Amino acid sequence: MLKIIAAVIGRDLKLALRRQADIVSALFFFIIVVSLFPLGVGPEPDLLRKLAPGVLWVAALLATMLSLPRLFADDHRDGTLEQLALAPHPLGLAVTGKVFAHWLVSGLPLALLAPVLGLQFDLPTDALLVLTGSLLLGTPALSGIGAIGAALTLGLRGGGILLSLLVLPLYIPVLIFGAGAVDATVAGLGGEGHLSLLAALTFAALGFAPWASAAALKIALE
Amino acid sequence: MLAAEQLACVRGERRLFANVGFRLDGGELLYLQGRNGAGKTSLLRMLIGLLPPEAGQILWRGQDIHEQIDEYRAELCYLGHHNAIKEELTPLENLLLSARLADETLSEDDALDALEQVGLAGREDLACKYLSQGQKRRVALARLVKERRALWVLDEPFVALDVAAVAWLAGIISGHLQRGGLAVMTTHQPVDIPAGTVRELRLG
Q1: Confidence (pTM)
Q2: In this complex, do A79 and B80 lie within 8 Å of one another by their Cβ atoms?
């Protein structure tokens, strides 16, 4: 079981490294959006500190969504998705591997970049730590939920728009608790409660999403 | 070993075929024939369990394939219209990876040997995007060289191949039939398979 998940992760990472443009463009999008805000709203530390959690989280969420349409589309086009579905193990395992690989190339770099970008918003050190922690905890849920949307819209024309419409409402709880954790830390309340809820969301999403995506993929393959 | 009973297929609003059935035992090859759009590929997709039949059932060793799908797929090898290879990876990587993902063991020496047989010696380490259409097809077909699963389902395997490669592939399929394997395939060009019993099924 772990062998197949590891094989899919290894494959997707290798492919991502040979086609770095995808990873880099999502990261640049994140950096640009986050960096434009302090320039746009002006250098008021209090205002920036208040804006920071929301801006960083919304930018991370949109950057994750950028790479979603291609999550299954490439495999679908060249027939490898069909072969994955025909392997003698449940398709959900392969999708688990793909979700994890997607997180490694999208969510993880975003979380690691966030504290550097957070400096532009004059966030205190503890808030930067909570920001990184909340992104580390929350972005796997974004990849998982996104996989369901990507699987449901696979092969549709104009699927990108539909994908956003499907996925965004499900992203809202993650956004609220993720940004809320940083907000609470800035306000001196402590973000543990938010982080626990975020972790719960992620575990629920990771347990459920691969199997829901696999069911949607099977319909797409019919 | 493989039997189909009373299969029917509806795509969109159109009924493609109904009451299709056949039996296939070890060492036998089934040629699926029919004009374009007769439902050959749909029938193959039913046989591999991706498309649920509108009516009827498919039996493998006497049991419905959907009741034993993982066991059935461990004995199934499918080669579709798409080559199922990754353009960014080399032929060798593709071959090793497809074996790993299908839960098979394939050593690097065996993979290199298979690539040599399909005439890709010296190109093992070149990314597949630099290969021609026929060469990509050969990478996909290289899987069959070491494939020992009992049932091969091949959709238009001879497309994009030159004369020598067609003869080579016919030999590979013969070898599979001689070992007691089963094969189902569609093709528009009649190819002589030297070994095994050949059955034909015409759709439409």
Answers
A1: 0.92
A2: yes
